[in-house]
Each structure stands twice: as structure tokens, then as C-alpha cells.
Write a structure and sequence with these properties.
By secondary structure, this protein is of the alpha/beta class. It has one domain: Aldolase class I (TIM Barrel). Helix content is 39%, strand content 16%. The chain has an 8-stranded parallel β-barrel with strand order 3-4-7-8-9-10-12-13, surrounded by 5 helices. Helix 4 links the parallel strand 3 and strand 4.
């Protein structure tokens, strides 16, 4: 029973941020009442092993939808093969001033400049511990907006230590365009120093806790070929466990003269699809299967997901496509892969 086409006009009549919060509350109510099993489509298991973990299917939720881990169980009921929560920072922060979220329905896109609004990592940890979800859970970590860029590693190390005991994998978000200077961490020696420090800490934590938690790097779609190649080399040199390609884009050329094109922030959805796929292809050529790629960006149907897998990804993540298509998107992609080869 697909109710989303009936609900979407109502949700889209609301302020985007209000609609976001209401949707999550409705999902939670459906889950807690037991209605979820009746109204959500059946998602077939199609196990895939990546980073030493078995994912029940290759379709994941991208970070950003549930920043605080407040809705893990409700989201899991949609049938995701894995869920990534966050981005979370060491200390709570309100994010950027509102309005900071904009829909572009003609382009099946969203512009956001949320700015890592979240309740802090201690709140997220408490929520994870209360949840009943036993699947693969990624925790996406970032730096606080007021932490100087030359001290950014301290925030990431803090987040890594905190999240290590509850996460299945940890994503290092250095590619959001909505925290000043953050993307600088993707370049030159900055990224080398950061990865080196995090991998060293990962080794210590694995010995201390007796379990190995993979580290994943999330990168932007706006990098040059040389920058992507540099990152690929570092991923291999430091044995980083995975890479997410990609975050949102700051490019606007694909929006033409749309009235919202001048809004600052990250653009997601259909307009970023080609850029994100090109980054996946570039990474795949450089990594040669030695570091798995999780693809995100413009996935709104099974064919879009198949395109990412064909480009070299092992897993996919959805976000904006989910806003426009609803929960049916997860089943349509996962069930498509269960009926044929992923590669």
C-alpha cells in the first residue's frame, strides 16, 4: 500500500524543515503502532559483503536525514540494508540561520545549508543504545563550526573515540559545503595529516575494544581529477576502509535560471547525479577494487542505482530521492538487485 503519493502534496505544502520533522514523526508513529508492516513494501534480502560486514541489501540511508539518531528503528522498518546517522559534532550546535532548506521539485532536487545542526554526540550515543536495531549502523562525524580548521582533527578524533563502541562503521565528513573552510580538509597535506591521525587512533581503539570498526571518508563531487586521484592514493596508502562518493555540490550550472539557484548551500538530487557518478568512475579506476565505494547522489530509481554500481560502487545510499519518491524507492532498488547482478 503506497500512501506516499497521497501524503506528498501535504508535506510539500509545508516549510521543508517542518515537513522533514513531521515525516520522521509520522514514520515513528507508523512503526510504534505496528502499521509499518502493513503499509511498507516488502524488501527482499540480498546480502552483500563489504568492509568485512554483511549488508542485508545494498541500499542504505545517507547521513543527514536522522542527524541525532532519534528515529533509527522507524527508519530501519523501511527495509534499508544499512543506516547512516549524523552528521554529529562533539558539542551540540544549532546550525545555520533559517531558512536553510529549499525544494526544487522541477529538478527533483534540494538545496540545504543546515550547517551540522545536531544535539551533540552524547545525545546520539544515548539514542543508539536505546534503539533495537541490530543491522549495520554508520555514524557520520564532523567538526563543530567554531573549532578552528587547524584544530579540526581534535574534533574528529573525539567523535571517533565516542562513536567507536556503537558504530558498525564511522564516516569522516570533510565534504559538507555548509561549515566554513571544512572542504579545505580534502586538499594537500591537510587530508594526509587527518587520515594519518584517524587511522592511528583506529588501531589503538581496535586493540582497546577488541573489535575493528571501519573508517570511511565522504568526499565532494566538486573535486578536480587530480584531487580525486590524490585522495585515492591516500585511501590506499593508509588502508582506509571505504569512501562515500559523493556529498552535495556547490555547482549551480545545471539549474539554469531557477529562482533558487542563487541560494548558498549543497545541491542534492537529480542535478548531482552525473557529477557523482563521474567521481565514482574516477575512484574505481584508481582504487582497482582495493577500497570499496559507497555511491550517493541523484539516485531516484533502480536504474540510477544500477548506474552507480556499474560505475564501480559496492553499495548505494539515498536521501533526496527518498523525499521525492517515498519509501517505495528502497524496495524498488533492493528488489531490482535481488533479481539480477549488481555489477
Amino acid at each position: 500500500m503506497n500512501l506516499y503519493p497521497l501524503l506528498r502534496p501535504l508535506l510539500f505544502s509545508l516549510n521543508p524543515e517542518t515537513a522533514h520533522e513531521l515525516t520522521l514523526k509520522l514514520l515513528n508513529a507508523a512503526h510504534q503502532s505496528g502499521l509499518a508492516k502493513l503499509i511498507y513494501p516488502t524488501v527482499q534480502d540480498n546480502p552483500v559483503t563489504v568492509m568485512g560486514m554483511i549488508f542485508k541489501n545494498p541500499v542504505g540511508l545517507a547521513a543527514g536525514l536522522d542527524k541525532n539518531g532519534d528515529y533509527i528503528d522507524a527508519l530501519a522498518a523501511l527495509g534499508f540494508g544499512f543506516i547512516e546517522i549524523g552528521t554529529v559534532t562533539p558539542r551540540p550546535q544549532p546550525g545555520n540561520p533559517k531558512p536553510r532548506l529549499f525544494r526544487l521539485p522541477d529538478h527533483q532536487a534540494i538545496i540545504n545549508r543546515m550547517g551540522f545542526n545536531n544535539l551533540g554526540i552524547d545525545h546520539l550515543l544515548a539514542q543508539v543504545k536505546q534503539s533495537r536495531y541490530s543491522g549495520i549502523l554508520g555514524v557520520n562525524i564532523g567538526k563543530n563550526f567554531d573549532t578552528p580548521i587547524d584544530s579540526a582533527a581534535d574534533d574528529y578524533l573525539f567523535g571517533l573515540r565516542k562513536a567507536y563502541t556503537v558504530a558498525s562503521y564511522i564516516t569522516i565528513n570533510i565534504s559538507s559545503p555548509n561549515t566554513q573552510n571544512l572542504r579545505q580538509l580534502q586538499q594537500g597535506d591537510e587530508i594526509k595529516k587527518l587520515i594519518s591521525a584517524l587511522k592511528e587512533e583506529q588501531l589503538k581503539l581496535s586493540q582497546e575494544h577488541g573489535r575493528y570498526v571501519p573508517l570511511v571518508l565522504k568526499i565532494a563531487p566538486d573535486l578536480t581529477t587530480d584531487e580525486i586521484n590524490h585522495i585515492a592514493k591516500l585511501l590506499l596508502d593508509f588502508a582506509v576502509d571505504g569512501v562515500i562518493a559523493t556529498n552535495t555540490t556547490i555547482a549551480r550550472d545545471m539549474l539554469g535560471d531557477h529562482p533558487l539557484a542563487q541560494e548558498t548551500g549543497g545541491l542534492s538530487g537529480a542535478p548531482v547525479k552525473a557529477k557523482a557518478t563521474a567521481v565514482v568512475q574516477n575512484l574505481a579506476a584508481e582504487l582497482n577494487g582495493r577500497c570499496p565505494i559507497i555511491a550517493a547522489g541523484g539516485i531516484a530509481c533502480a536504474a540510477d542505482a544500477q548506474e552507480k554500481i556499474a560505475a564501480g560502487a559496492s553499495l548505494v545510499q539515498v536521501y533526496t530521492g527518498l523525499i521525492y519518491q517515498g519509501p517505495e524507492l528502497i524496495a524498488s532498488i533492493a528488489n531490482h538487485f535481488s533479481h539480477g547482478p549488481r555489477g
